Amino acid sequence: MTGSLSMEAKMLLAQDARPQLTETKAAERLGLKPGTLKRMRNLGRGPAFFKVSRAVRYDPTDIDAYLGRRRVVPANEERA
Q1: DSSP 3-state assignment of 51?
Q2: Pseudo-torsion of CA 62, 48, 45, 25, nearest 10°?
Q3: pLDDT along the chain (80 residues), means of 10
Q4: Whole-prediction pTM value?
């Protein structure tokens, strides 16, 4: 996917030392199809993301935070 990026976009992505996940890798981590993640993003839902030119990238800590906000503890487990 990075082959279609401009030189400026490649440089911006390379300057960020944090690991970045592609849309496909982020979707895998979430247990979703890439198209589902894209649809969520277009609807203003889902984890935070970065967009440089046409490239969409996800920070793994944002993926983990998103999953953490969706954690459901069954009622009977809370009382134990």
Answers
A1: strand
A2: -70
A3: 66 67 96 97 96 92 95 77
A4: 0.70
